[in-house]
Amino acid sequence: MMDWIKGLGKKKSVSLQSEISVHKVPHHVAIIMDGNGRWAKKRGLPRIAGHHSGMKAVKRITIAADEIGVKILTLYAFSTENWSRPRDEVDYLMKLPQQFLLLELNELIEKNVQVRVIGWREGLPEYTLEALDEAVDRTKNNTGLILNFALNYGSRKEMLEGMKRVTVDIQAGKVHLEQLDEEMFSSYLQTDELPDPDLLIRTSGEQRLSNFMLWQLAYTELYFTACYWPDFSKEHFFEAIEQYQQRIRRYGGL
Ligand code: FPP
Fold first, then answer.
1. What's the rounded mean pLDDT across residues 240-251?
2. How many angstroms is it from 31 CA to the middle of ligand 1?
3. In a domain, 37, yes or no
4. pLDDT tens for each residue of 111-153
5. H/E element holding 149?
6. Which co-factors does it depend on (predicted)?
7. Residue 108: inside a domain, yes or no?
8. Which of 31, 32, 33 to mutate to test the pocket of ligand 1 (most atoms within 8 A of CB)?
9. 233 assigned binding-site residue
10. Total tally of structural domains belonging to the chain
11. % helix, strand, coil for the chain, step of 5
């Protein structure tokens, strides 16, 4: 009895059992937060209104994840491909870290959340970098959930750069080719010492990985939902966790 988390699933729109096992909570959850634009369009709002609501969902889901004992939450906030969007939209997305710092971070600090960032700094405006650095710095001693933003991130670029760096180390004699295994190669990726995600969630009904953590997702359970990211509630999140808990992970074995 005490092994179950009670009181979930209050929303009528989501058919959900009311219990999550505390024994099989995914350690690391990664999310492709998709559908902000369509959420806004459905309401006759500009796309940036969808991104603003998406930022609110970030806080909501971080708190929900922390509540059930998830230790790492990696969120795909901006891909290396997103630069091709209209200028206004990119500008707005680049201002979100500032808004997040101002409006949402204090509540997460109270929850002992530690903010981290993966992706490339090059190309990001100074004000975006400053906001990110401040969020990382203000939370660096926190020991709770790791909230890891993937911003200006792309998985192929990450792997290619990892390959180049490991090649340089091999040429310099710091690494012997025979030593290079999966674990060592992982340390050359941006996720470095973070364990691979156990569960990947993608909202909005799309079922693809969009250049997100391709190496790290090798054995991850995938969960797709039609719900747009700004609508993604605590109950939707718990439903994903429940589904994950019903899966049997075999890692290629029987
Ligand atoms: C995809 O939806 C979403 C994004 C490209 C941006 C996601 C960013 C956030 C939710 C906020 C992140 C918060 C911080 C603090 C960085 P889309 O625009 O592709 O939606 P569509 O497919 O419906 O057009």
1. 89
2. 11
3. yes
4. 999 999 999 999 999 999 999 999 999 999 999 999 999 999 9
5. strand 146-153
6. Mg(2+)
7. yes
8. 33
9. no
10. 1
11. 45, 15, 40
Q: Is residue 129 part of a domain?
A: yes
Answer yes or no: is 32 within a domain. Answer: yes
3-state SS track over 182-218: HHHHHCCCCCCCCCCCCEEEECCCCCCCCCCCCCCCC
Other beta carbons less than 10 A from residue 43's beta carbon: 12
The helix (run of H) or strand (run of E) holding residue 32 is: strand 28-32
Check which CATH number belongs to the domain holding 112 and give it.
3.40.1180.10
Alpha carbons 41 and 37: distance in angstroms, whole number? 6
Provide the domain limits for residue 39. Answer: 26-154+196-245
Q: Whose CA is closest to 16, among 196, 210, 253, 227? A: 227
Is 221 within any annotated ligand binding site?
yes
Burial zone of 150 (CB within 10 Å; 0-12 exposed, 13-18 middle, 19+ buried): buried
User: Which CA distances in Å does 111 have to 133, 174, 216?
Assistant: 19, 41, 27
Task: Name 88's Cβ contacts closer than 8 Å, sequence gap at least 6.
Answer: 48
Report the C-alpha gap between 188 and 186 in whole angstroms. Answer: 5
User: Tokens standing for 69?
Assistant: 């004992």
Ligand 1 geometric centre to CA of 52 (Å): 9
DSSP-assigned beta bridge partners for residue 149? 75, 117
Q: How many CB atoms lie within 10 A of CB 223?
A: 18
